[in-house]
Design goal:
Helix content: 10-25%
CATH superfamily: Nucleoside Triphosphate Pyrophosphohydrolase
CATH topology: Nucleoside Triphosphate Pyrophosphohydrolase
Radius of gyration: 15 Å
Number of domains: 1
Order of helices and strands: EEEEHEEEHH
Number of strands: 7
Oligomer: single chain
CATH class: Alpha Beta
Strand content: 35-45%
Low-confidence stretches: none
Distance between the termini: 43 Å
Mean pLDDT: 89
């Protein structure tokens, strides 16, 4: 059964006025510290086996905790990928496109977030500081955003 255990992680490509909110992962993070990524976190089980919309609920909570902003209720699935953390733990990562609703972005937990950056899709694509997986997620999110007319 251990071969079926994965961390489930969710991330949000938060869009506002032509830019996406990215974070530099805090140095205390066990996976990819210092990497420029989307905002998100691990799905946690709170004892309710019938939790509806667990991915979306988790993403809203993580965004509020990490960068102190709220997103609109509507979000769009972008992609899911599997990878292993730096210490070899398997992860399923699910990315959603999100619209910014309110709040001034600030660092909620300095151990998890080192800094915040609003970046255009072009800045993300051209930046040497952006890992390939973040670049790919932003490219896909921006294609979906354009398709939706956001």
């Amino acid at each position: 059964m251990d071969s079926y255990r994965h961390v489930v992680n969710v991330e949000g490509a938060i869009f506002k006025e032509g830019r996406y909110l990215l974070v530099v992962r805090g140095e205390a993070e066990s996976h990819a510290p210092g990497a420029l990524t989307l905002v998100g976190g691990k799905v946690e089980f709170f004892g309710n086996p019938d939790q509806d919309d667990i991915l979306e609920t988790t993403l809203r909570r993580e965004i509020l905790e990490e960068v102190t902003v709220e997103i609109e209720d509507e979000m769009e699935y972008i992609e899911s990928v599997a990878f292993s953390t730096d210490d070899g733990f398997p992860v399923v990562d699910v990315v959603f496109l999100c619209k910014y609703r309110s709040g001034t972005p600030s660092i909620g937990d300095a151990g998890e977030v080192g800094s915040l950056h609003w970046m255009t899709p072009q800045e993300v694509i051209l930046s040497s500081d952006v890992p390939e997986w973040t670049r790919r997620s932003i490219e896909k999110a921006d294609e979906k955003r354009i398709e939706l007319g956001w």
